[in-house]
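**User:** Everyone, produce a chain:

**Assistant:**
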Amino acid sequence: MSNELGHQLRQTILRLARRVRAERADDAMSDGKLSVLFMLANEGAQTLGSLSDHERVTPPSMNRTINGLVESGLVTRVSDATDGRKVVIDVSDAGRRLVRDTRRKRDAWFSSRLSKLTNAERETLENAEEILRRLADQ
């Protein structure tokens, strides 16, 4: 039973994640670029290497992603405040707006779905959220 539950949960979580990712302020932006924007908005300026490590891609691949985001005006390259030889990537005001608008869209999508559930179903999800967070953090 545990293997079957694991399989069903994994598939459901993946489907839900794909559905949530589809809600975005810019439909043309790739998941990879949006992920980098969210990371920068949440964690602050990063080096190309730290972004590559976080996204689990090669530095040349991350550089192409960053070049596209720079061209779109969504991120900037700036000298590191403590080491002028180092360049860090930071999210621009336009990038922050895109992240904010995407979060709003995703939250609205979720809220509309949750509002259609019964109180008991919402309570079940509240309990499950803590368990799922623990699983994700392990």
Notes: The domain at 2-137 is CATH 1.10.10.10 (Arc Repressor Mutant, subunit A).
